Amino acid sequence: MKKILVTGALGQIGSELSHEFNARYGNENVIVSDVMVDTKGIYPENVFEKVDVTDVDGLEKIIKRHNIDTIIHLAAILSARGEQDPELAWHINIDGLLNVIRLSIKHNIDRLMVPSSIAVFGPQSTLYNAPQETILKPNTMYGITKVTGELLADYYYKKYNLDFRGIRYPGIISHKTMPGGGTTDYAVEIFYEALKTGHYTCFLSSEACLPMMYMPDCVRATIELLEADRTSLKHRGDYNVGAMSFTPEDQAAEIRKYLPNFTIDYQPDFRREIAKYWPASVDDSSACADWGWRPQYNLEMTVKDMLVNVAKKLEIDFKI
Question: Which of 213, 231, 276, 307 lies 20 to 30 Å from 123, alpha-carbon distance?
């Protein structure tokens, strides 16, 4: 890897992954892009390119201008927003992906990484310890696009030898950048409300158990798979990765260890129906065997670190 292009770099994952790339590969070798302009100055040290991934000509100019050989394609419409505008979700998530794939083949891109998601699972999938290979019939447009992406990864690897890699991300928890329209966003929002108001109204039900991962583990998993020897990989765009699983009530109980007066109530909306058929846990033995995946953060460690960092962000005096 010599020159890396990150699409969707202003998003929750992209904003932290790109900075880790800077530290690892040198900021002069990391080109960041998004459909929006970097008005907050997140990337003062990088070349930033404004581009819509559905604009194939604009993407190609960036690839050629910077001699890109590795692409991390994070630009996407997430689950909750995707249900509000399914045609837009298909357009961005599939038409944009196909542009990236075509250009990767045309310009001999060495490595393409595209995230998948636990949204690929559906009503007919196993809800506990969901296996690496199982029935995938999701009931959301976001999930449909992610299953399509996984199938395209296999197809283009076999037909064109495109080194296409991907992880089925669980819900991601982070404090540096807010998530943008996902079904697991409550797990981040809860920290802000706990510290600001002492109360949170959750859009999922109290017993909605879902796989989650803290951002440091997410970044590390992505880099480990990106750098793995391709000969060791038995899967392409669909690796399960696990870290922890919990319900909103579990998370609230952990927060109360540090904020005893914190309260939570529940007003489930359409996102509860989305989460209803996502697995409570996943079998990540393939990732463990093929590229040595091991999580480092559990719920207790995540809650402590999130409370400290969100309090700093909100300029609230808080100590563990």
Answer: 213
Query: At which residue do the structure tokens 């199982």 appear?
Result: 134
Question: Cβ distance 242 to 282 under 8 Å?
Answer: yes
Q: What are phi and psi of 271, to 5 degrees?
A: -70, -25
Spatial CA neighbour of 282 closest among 171, 201, 162: 171
Please write the tens of the pLDDT for every residue from 223-257: 999 999 999 999 999 999 999 999 999 999 999 99
How do residues 126-174 score in pLDDT, each as one tens digit?
989 999 999 999 999 999 999 999 999 999 999 999 999 999 999 999 9
Give the model's pLDDT for residue 2.
Answer: 86
pLDDT tens-digit map of 22-65: 999 999 999 999 999 998 899 999 999 999 999 999 999 999 99
Positions annotated as catalytic residues are 142
CA–CA separation, 60 vs 68, rounded Å?
10
- Of the candidates 263, 246, 249, the one whose C-alpha atom is nearest the C-alpha of residue 302 is 246
Q: Kindly write down the DSSP assignment for every residue of 253-302, as one continuous string.
A: HHHHTT-TT-EEEE---HHHHHHTTS-S-B--HHHHHHH-------HHHH
Cα–Cα nearest to 152, from 104, 84, 219, 211? 104
* CB count in 10 Å sphere of residue 277: 18
Is 290 in contact with 225 (CB distance < 8 Å)? no
3-state helix, strand, coil in the chain (%, to 5): 45, 15, 40
Percent of residues, the chain, with pLDDT higher than 70: 100
Beta strands in the chain (DSSP E): 4-7, 30-34, 47-50, 70-73, 111-113, 116-117, 164-165, 167-169, 171-173, 199-202, 210-214, 239-240, 244-246, 263-266
Question: At which residue do the structure tokens 């050989």 appear?
Answer: 69
